[in-house]
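Q: Here's a chain of 140 amino acids. Please give me its 3D structure as tokens.
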Amino acid sequence: MASAAIKKLKELSPNIKIIRKTVPGIKDLPVACKKLLEEENCDIVMALGMPGKAEKDKVCAHEASLGLMLAQLMTNKHIIEVFVHEDEAKDDKELDWLAKRRAEEHAENVYYLLFKPEYLTKMAGKGLRQGFEDAGPARE
């Protein structure tokens, strides 16, 4: 996932500085992200993880997600959560495709947040999704 995200970011902004850190588990992401924002002075962070299918894994992912939200509020900076749950795909091939696609599409969001936030305003309400097919715009 990280390789796909980094490749996409480099395509969009060749001179972007990327710091990559790896943690032992998904619940270690919040503090690692907070440290990147505060100690490494990053403008934004992507938190990538692949929780398993067991109920315990889903609980851990939820706890990690809450920690990431808290870290965002504590630092006043974005942390883009990029989780792909093992049970989202029908097989390993689809899971691999989904992980790469979601990472790439969230990397695009990082680029827009940093360099073209007006694009996000233009795309709001269109039901865009990262990974599988878009939901499409809401009907009035």
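Q: Can you summarize the key feature?
A: The chain has one domain: 1-123.
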